[in-house]
Design brief:
The complex is a heterodimer of chains A (466) and B (388). With 466 residues, chain A is an alpha+beta fold. Chain A is built from 11 helices and 22 strands. Chain A is 21% helix and 32% strand. Mean pLDDT of chain A is 72; it is low at 117-124, 159-182, 188-208, 273-277, 283-292 and 438-466. The chains are: A alpha+beta (466), B alpha/beta (388).
Chain lengths: 466, 388
């Protein structure tokens, strides 16, 4: 059985009243994409994307998710399965993934829990609050094994729940003979809904239990957050359970600890100045209209799709004859014209040097960006260096456009570009670099081979365990 | 000195600006005034072939505008070819006409540059202003041409540690010249403060760093050297021709602060003309944005890299300076009807070298250079003219 070894956390880029809120260019897909990229970027072997066989989606992902995650990681064989939003869907995804993983067959669970603010605006494109988490389950590395979940209409902490055959913690945690069956309880508190009976932990005599508030997060995100706390509090103990009280029912989730879990994310390490609350409020006032303009300067859908390897993954071709690098990828080497002997490679997505910058002011934007400008105002555009002589043009997002400067560094994120022909178009945008370190050598950010042409497994494994 | 490639024997120019005339009327007016300008007279039927430079802005007759030129120019069914090379359309149309007469294929060819940009609504216009640029990377990042030139300008000022006053000086100088040009869209001078305090469009470019949206048409009559003197005692000789292309997107070019297409075009033009840059009396350069004029000075070989700003700030590019640039006001003040600009630059060379430029006449003008750029440097033409 596979276990949870990596969990990443991504917060929507904006803050509204202290709550993470999506900007106009974010949705479940862009947040999930970021979460998956963080996990895959955490020192895992370069062939990880090709080992990834299935993605379990928990949340209301837009249609692009059906093929978007496979495009994002460059693995055409990636299957996508959907689960209902909420704790149960999340656990269903975890358990399914844990059961199907094996050597060279990994799965990811991506939960994106964004709730439209309940002030009557369009649920599709209005800013949403919430968070997202992604977990990758690796069969060969022990971590947290999800044991299962159960619903009960009586508190699992009440004496009657300990009886044989009833749904309770002992059942969820597996055989009582399992060594070191100490239980940690984390009580997920929905303020005002947790009944007084929950205050009787002696019924199951756990070594510890603790109420933690829901942090203002929606349920799936809360579940991931509790999972993290549970992992940390388990210490030397082997079993743990989460309890959530939801209206008249209790949900119990159990895990067994086998090893450590890597907790990743950009919650703590990135400090993103919020955009003005006024503009976020303006965004709440209406949804972004779908732009169906189909004349003049626009990118037709087939050409948009054709470019995705370079647009989403910064893939380039290196020519075996002249060693030149072609970006974006084309059918032949742009330096010597050879169409054979091109090796696909990936250029770095983070820590790119800014070579030129402009701020497009209202009225200076192409019409496709009218709605965005109406909501957010000016935006910056930069030309950044992917490697010497190879550059990319990127819009800057999340921040005051004045902050980016020539000579500074940016990271990139997959975001919505604009709606066209009835769908959202996605591409990478620039955000301030997490590490503004000019000393950082270009080598560490240098290209890694494409997942479609993996390096030897031996190299990959030793890296994975380091 | 190399032999003449062709001769300009007549030229006509409508006003530039937001005009009430439609495209057909503009073409008729430009052709008629070009024919009327031929000293010894000329019949419409004597024109052997015509070339129309236009973008077909806003989708107006984008498919087949050649027939319209045949009708409105009363051309009696001669071959007409439309050439679309973005803002360099009529620069390339002029070169096609020069080759037609130089090869001996025709005695006399007509070039018309045309654009009608103000007929449509503002959103539609902004949509069309991007069609000549890179759509897959620049447009998807949210750039129009102002944005692309904003990137170039930011890099240029940063790389050479220059203040934005160099950009301001271009606008001030070109408005000063445009004020003297009866065909110019803006016939008023502007102050440095006005330029710098006008609203930002794409940093560091303000509204006053950008050329306007304009209507207008220009017609040129191009004769073979052998027949030129049948039409006038004062032909303006075409002595050098060069052109070049580059990557469409700025990110794919070798340099962010220099246009390789311009360099190539200039090298070819000076080589064919066997002329030295010191013999050039005036430049008509493609100043769609003020930064573009600084780049042009350097890429055409009149200033070292990064020194175009100094040349401009020292006043050497004014009409009284060592190398006058854009005496007609340039795209900046005269206006920029996209397809008409290349022909309009040649029109200025024609009147300057025939000493008929009125108040803006450059004293002793004997050799003129015109420089027409398509996109943000994706294509360029350079043409050298000598007084007859």
């Amino acid at each position: 059985m596979g276990s949870i070894t990596h969990v990443s956390w991504v917060r929507p880029s904006h803050l509204l009243g202290g709550i993470g809120t999506t900007g106009p260019d974010e949705d479940e897909f862009t947040l999930g994409a970021r979460a998956l990229e963080i996990v895959l970027g955490d020192g895992l072997p370069s062939e990880t994307p090709s080992r990834l066989r299935r993605v379990h989606l928990v949340g209301r992902f837009p249609p692009v998710a059906e093929w978007g995650f496979s495009e994002l990681v460059g693995n055409e064989g990636l299957e996508v399965l959907r689960h209902p939003l909420g704790w149960e869907g999340l656990w269903e995804g975890f358990v399914a993934a844990a059961n199907e993983t094996g050597e060279d067959r990994w799965s990811a669970v991506i939960a994106a829990d964004l709730a439209a603010r309940s002030d009557g605006v369009s649920p599709s494109d209005a800013p949403k609050w919430g968070a997202v988490g992604a977990a990758v389950l690796l069969s060969e590395n022990p971590g947290l094994i999800p044991l299962g979940s159960a619903h009960t209409d009586r508190s699992p902490l009440s004496p009657g729940m300990r009886g044989a055959g009833s749904v309770g913690i002992s059942k969820i945690l597996g055989a009582p003979s399992d060594s070191g069956p100490s239980t940690v309880l984390e009580l997920a508190e929905e303020p005002g809904t947790l009944p007084p009976t929950a205050g009787a932990p002696e019924a199951v005599a756990p070594e510890s239990s603790e109420h933690i508030p829901q942090l203002g997060l929606p349920p799936s995100a809360s579940a991931l957050w509790f999972l993290r706390n549970l992992d940390r509090r388990l210490g030397a103990r082997r079993h743990g359970a989460l309890l959530s009280a939801e209206r008249d029912a209790w949900l119990v989730l159990g895990v067994r600890k086998e090893g450590s879990v890597r907790w990743l994310g950009d919650w703590e390490r990135r400090s993103v100045p919020p955009i003005s609350i006024d503009s976020a409020h303006a965004a709440l006032a209406g949804s972004i209209p779908v732009n169906n303009v189909s004349e003049g300067a626009y990118v037709p859908r087939p050409r948009y799709l054709e470019n995705l390897p370079s647009r989403w993954r910064f893939e380039a071709d290196r020519c075996r004859v002249c060693r030149g690098v072609t970006f974006p990828v084309a059918t032949s080497c742009r330096h010597c014209g050879k169409s054979e002997g091109l090796d696909r490679m990936r250029l770095p997505q983070d820590h790119l040097r800014v070579l030129a910058k402009t701020v497009v002011r209202p009225g200076g934007q192409p019409t496709e960006f009218d709605a965005q400008v109406a909501i957010e105002g000016s935006y910056a555009v930069v030309i950044a260096e992917l490697r010497p002589e190879i550059r990319v043009t990127l819009q800057v997002t999340d921040i005051d456009p004045e902050i980016i400067r020539i000579g500074g560094f940016i990271d990139t994120r997959l975001r919505r570009l604009y709606p066209m022909e009835g769908e959202w178009r996605y591409g990478r945008k620039a955000v301030p670099a997490a590490v503004e370190d000019a000393e950082r050598t270009r080598d560490t950010a240098a290209s890694v081979p494409s997942p479609r042409r993996p390096r030897s497994k031996a190299t990959g494994r030793s890296k994975a365990r380091s | 000195m190399a032999k003449e490639l062709a001769a300009l024997i007549g030229a006509g120019h409508t006003r530039f600006g937001a005009l009430s005339e439609g495209p057909r009327q503009l073409v008729r007016d430009a052709v008629d005034s070009a024919i009327a300008s031929v000293d010894a007279g000329l019949q419409h039927a004597e024109i052997g072939e015509a070339f129309l430079g236009t973008l077909g802005f806003s989708g107006w007759q984008i498919g087949n505008s050649s027939a319209m030129l045949n009708e409105e120019g009363r051309l009696s069914g001669i071959p007409v070819t439309r050439i679309e090379n973005a803002c360099a359309s009529s620069g390339f149309a002029l070169h096609a006409a020069i080759r037609a007469v130089q090869s001996g294929h025709r005695d006399l060819a007509l070039v018309v540059g045309l654009e009608k940009m103000t007929d449509v609504t503002s959103p539609r216009r902004r949509y069309w202003l991007g069609v000549s640029g890179d759509t897959e990377w620049e447009r998807l990042a949210g750039l129009t041409f102002a944005g692309v030139y904003g990137l170039i300008a930011s890099r240029y000022l940063d790389q050479y540690r220059l203040p934005r006053s160099a950009l301001t000086e271009v606008a001030v100088k070109n408005h000063e010249n445009g004020a003297l040009n009866p065909n110019a869209q803006f016939r008023k001078t502007v102050s440095r403060e006005q330029v710098e305090s006008s609203p930002l469009v794409a940093d560091p470019l303000t509204l006053m760093d950008c050329c306007p949206v304009s209507d207008g048409a220009v017609a040129l009559l191009v004769a073979s050297p052998e027949v030129a003197r049948r039409f006038t005692d004062a032909p303006v000789w075409v002595v050098g021709c060069g052109a070049g292309s580059d990557a469409l997107a700025l990110q794919d070019r070798q340099s962010l602060t220099s246009l390789a297409a311009t360099k190539r075009a200039a090298a070819e033009a000076f080589r064919t003309a066997e002329l030295d840059r010191r013999s050039v009396s005036l430049l008509e350069v493609h100043d769609c944005f003020t930064i573009a004029e600084l780049l042009a000075l350097e890429d055409l070989g009149f200033a070292e890299p990064g020194k175009g700003a100094e040349l401009t700030l020292s006043g050497q590019t004014r009409r009284s300076g060592r190398i006058p640039v854009n005496p007609d006001g340039g795209l900046k003040a005269k206006g920029h009807p996209i397809g008409a600009t290349g022909a309009s630059q040649a029109y200025e060379a024609f009147v300057q070298l025939r000493r008929s430029a009125g108040d803006r006449q450059i004293a002793g003008a004997s050799v003129a250079l015109t420089h027409n750029v398509g996109g943000s440097g994706a294509s360029a033409t350079v043409t050298l003219f000598r007084a007859g």
